[in-house]
Structures are given as C-alpha cells and as structure tokens.
C-alpha cells in the first residue's frame, strides 16, 4: 500500500490552482510553437484535448487509488501534471519534462513535504513505463492504469472515428477502426493489475462491443470484423 502523508494534503483550492496552471501551460505550449504545436497534425492533439485527457486521467486514477488504498493526493497531483509537457517535448522526453515542471511548481506554490514532491515527480517520470506494473509503486500504477483506460471505451471510439474523418475514410471503414479500439481495450485489460482497473476495463470493453455489434447490424458489408466470442 502507498504511504499516507497526511501533512501533504492538497486542498480543493490548491488543486483548482494547479488545474488552471496546467491548462494555461498547455495553451502556451501551442501558442509558442511556430508550426502550431508538436503533434497538432491530428485535430485532437490540441491544448483543449490534452487538458480533457488529463482531467479524465485524474478522475480514473483517483478512483483506482481510492479503491486500492494508494495515496490519493500523490496520484491526483501526478495525474494532473503527467502530460503537461506533451505538446512541447518529444514523446520520449515528455515524462521527464513533466516531472521537472511539477517539481518547480510544487516547490514554489506551497509548503509541500519533500517526500510528497518526490513521490509525485517519480510517478510522472515513470508514467510511460511499458514493463510490468508490479515493478512500480502503487501510486505510479494507479496513474498508468488511469492513462491506459482513457484510451479505451466510448472515448477511445469517438477519437478513432475522428481519426477516420481526418484520414478521409468512409463509414465503411468504421468496423476496422472500432476493432482497433476493441484490441486496445483487450490489451489494456491484460496489462492492468488492480481489481479496480480491471473492472473499469471490462465495463468499457462491453460498451465498445455493443457499439460494434449495432454498427454491423446497420451497415451491411462493413469492413473489419467483430470478435464476439472474445472477452
């Protein structure tokens, strides 16, 4: 279980200030790029989308942390800052850069214990880890699981359909695209370890499967296939 650090509790007012800082930072990251911002070649890779993803991860990771007994303050603050550098740093560097920004913010906007700051920045730094989740702290695992789960389910389906429009695909490709969301969801269900995250993953998979089945019934000759016999 995570170490509870009662003296490091983050108030609602402090967390609201952090959210505003992250939102403003993402907007500035895009405005400061001459080419419109790194990763802007897909419409949803904007400051607005990235902040919405961040809030989704905050909610998911906090729910998992609460059910798994992790330090909720560490998890929700790490989730809030985990992608703050996503629009200005290269993919392989964004976690380290995000940890740096979070450390600077926490050092200058409150009297947070060093142990709290270290846990938060460690989770941010490790949130892109691709190995077994048993290798990381409980708080980092909650963050990684929340980050994974936001990409599946109804939200992941909508993003994939938006990608179809950007790539000038027709509705006949929808089956293939939704199958990708299903596969991503199955990968997520296999990777997460906590009971809380597994439950969320399977719930979201059901939603995508239902949508895929309805789509197949209404569009004859749909590309792709629906693996109804798979969990």
Counted by DSSP, the helix tally is: 9
Give the mean pLDDT.
86
Low-confidence stretches: 1-6
Strand content: under 5%
- Please give the domain count: 2
CATH architecture annotation of the largest domain: Orthogonal Bundle
Oligomeric state of the chains? single chain
Separation of the first and last Cα atoms: 30 Å
Class from helix and strand fractions:
mainly alpha
CATH superfamily of the largest domain, by name, is: Hypothetical protein af1432
How can the largest sheet be summarized?
A: none
Shape: globular
Given this structure, which CATH class of the largest domain is correct? Mainly Alpha
- Which series of helices and strands comes N to C? HHHHHHHHH
The helical percent reads 55-70%
Radius of gyration: 19 Å
Query: What is the CATH topology descriptor of the largest domain?
Result: Hypothetical protein af1432
User: How many strand segments?
Assistant: 0
Give your account of this protein's structure.
This protein is mostly helical and 231 residues long. It folds into two domains: 12-132, Hypothetical protein af1432, CATH 1.10.3210.10; 152-218, no CATH class. 64% of the residues lie in helices and 0% in strands. It contains nine helices and no strands. The chain has helices at residues 12-31, 47-68, 72-81, 94-108, 114-125, 138-149, 153-166, 174-191, 195-218. Helix 3 crosses helix 6 (138-149) and helix 5 (114-125) crosses helix 6 (138-149). The radius of gyration is 19 Å and the shape is globular. The two termini are 30 Å apart. The model is unreliable at 1-6 (pLDDT under 50).
């Amino acid at each position: 279980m995570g170490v509870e650090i009662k003296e490091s509790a983050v108030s609602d007012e402090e967390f609201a200030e952090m959210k505003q800082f992250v939102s403003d930072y993402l907007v500035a990251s895009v405005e400061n790029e001459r080419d419109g911002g790194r990763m802007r070649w897909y419409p949803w890779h904007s400051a607005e989308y990235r902040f919405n993803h961040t809030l989704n991860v905050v909610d998911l990771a906090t729910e998992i942390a609460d059910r798994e007994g992790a330090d909720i303050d560490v998890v929700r603050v790490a989730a809030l800052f985990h992608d703050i550098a996503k629009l200005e740093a290269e993919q392989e560097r964004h976690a380290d850069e995000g940890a740096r920004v979070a450390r600077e913010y926490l050092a200058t906007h409150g009297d947070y214990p060093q142990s709290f700051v270290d846990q938060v920045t460690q989770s941010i730094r490790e949130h892109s880890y691709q190995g077994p989740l048993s290798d990381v702290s409980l708080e980092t695992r909650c963050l990684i699981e929340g980050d994974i789960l936001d990409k599946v389910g109804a939200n992941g389906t909508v993003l994939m359909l938006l990608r179809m429009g950007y790539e000038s695909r027709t509705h006949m490709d929808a089956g293939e695209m939704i199958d990708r969301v299903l596969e991503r969801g199955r990968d997520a269900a296999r990777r997460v370890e906590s009971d809380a995250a597994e439950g969320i993953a399977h719930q979201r998979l059901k939603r995508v499967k239902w949508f895929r089945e309805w789509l197949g019934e209404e569009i004859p000759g749909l590309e792709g296939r629906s693996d109804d016999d798979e969990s």
